[in-house]
Design brief:
Elements: E1 6-8, E2 11-13, H1 15-27, H2 33-44, H3 55-67, E3 99-102, E4 110-113, H4 117-130, E5 142-149, E6 152-161, H5 167-173, H6 177-183, E7 187-194, E8 199-202, H7 204-224, E9 230-235, H8 243-247, E10 251-255, E11 259-262, E12 265-268, E13 274-279, H9 284-289
Parallel strand pairs: 3-8, 7-9
Antiparallel strand pairs: 1-2, 4-5, 5-6, 6-7, 9-13, 10-13, 11-12
Helix pairs in contact: 2-3
Length: 293
């Protein structure tokens, strides 16, 4: 077997892979990094399920190879700004009225996908200022949901690509590594859930989760051209009990091992989280295992 020189996500790079990338980089050096990443995607047939090139993944791989001294990339055309945290200093216009009582006292919340710049800024502002983890940097496939009662925002949800290493989830599905590599994009991860602190409506959280899950697969397909069949989330039990997920019929299937991804490696932080899953289709295992028909 050829020695593995570099691991990137689920891809193992051997000496001939590195040599190919070096030759590709040298051949298109004057065309810049974006052009090289697109050519790498085309050469490897590295495509998203919606048919678009995996340009972000290719650029990220090239940067990590450069960090290890395995390739030399051309200079940046523009200053590096992708890691600069977004500042939400300007307060957007939104209703901030205290809401209390039971969910039955209010009209049914409406869930919608965040699409325009104004809604995206409001979503980010609320997460940045009122969620303990702040506003996430969503890359790859992702969807933002914003929830209203009347003209007031009562919740924000963020959904993103599923985590790669989740042993208890893979066991629950019945996945081996090769099957997971093919079908991981058919799972969405609930990476943020916020109800602003001035909204104190009983049972709102579980109601919002149920409504969002009901439309999640359709929303995903409208944006990315494919459905999702399972939702996952990770609950920090040092802060939360997972009550709203339990009330919305999510299934607790285990714990994480207490590792977090840092760049291309996993680092142990010693804080395992509870893993909850929610099947979006009755036959989700069949869809996630092999049959997409």
């Amino acid at each position: 077997m050829k020695p593995i020189l570099f691991h990137y996500r689920s891809r193992e790079l051997h000496a001939d892979d590195i040599a190919f990338i070096k030759a590709l980089t040298e051949r298109h050096f004057l065309r810049g990094r974006s052009y090289i990443s697109r050519e790498l995607c085309k050469s490897w047939n590295w495509m998203q399920p919606n048919g678009k090139l995996k340009e972000y993944a290719a650029r990220d791989l090239l940067l990590r190879l450069e960090e290890q001294g395995l390739v030399s990339l051309p200079p940046r055309i523009r200053p590096k700004n992708n890691l600069k945290p977004k500042v939400f200093d300007q307060m957007p216009l939104f209703v901030k009225r205290t809401l209390e009582g039971a969910i039955t006292e209010y009209e049914t919340p409406t869930v919608q996908v965040v699409r325009d710049h104004q809604e995206r800024y409001l979503w980010g502002y609320l997460l940045h200022h009122y969620h303990y983890l702040g506003c996430p940097r969503l890359v790859g496939e992702h969807i933002r949901h914003i929830v209203h009662i009347g003209n007031q925002v009562v919740a924000c949800l963020g959904w993103a690509s599923a985590a790669w290493k989740v042993k208890d989830r893979d066991r629950f599905i019945g996945w081996d590594e090769s099957t997971k590599r093919i079908h991981l994009h058919l799972i969405a991860s609930n990476v943020r859930f916020l109800i602003p602190p001035w909204v104190m409506i009983k049972h709102l959280a579980s109601k919002v989760l149920s409504l969002a899950l009901r439309r999640l697969s359709h929303d995903w397909k409208s944006v990315y051209g494919h459905p999702v069949y399972l939702a996952e989330t990770f609950v920090d039990t040092a802060r939360f009990q997972g009550t709203c997920y339990q009330a919305a019929n999510w299934i607790r299937v285990g714990k994480t091992q207490g590792n977090a991804k840092r760049g291309n490696r996993y680092q142990y932080h010693g804080q395992p989280k509870e893993l909850y899953l929610y099947p979006l289709e009755r036959n989700f295992r069949r869809f996630l295992a092999h049959d997409q028909g």
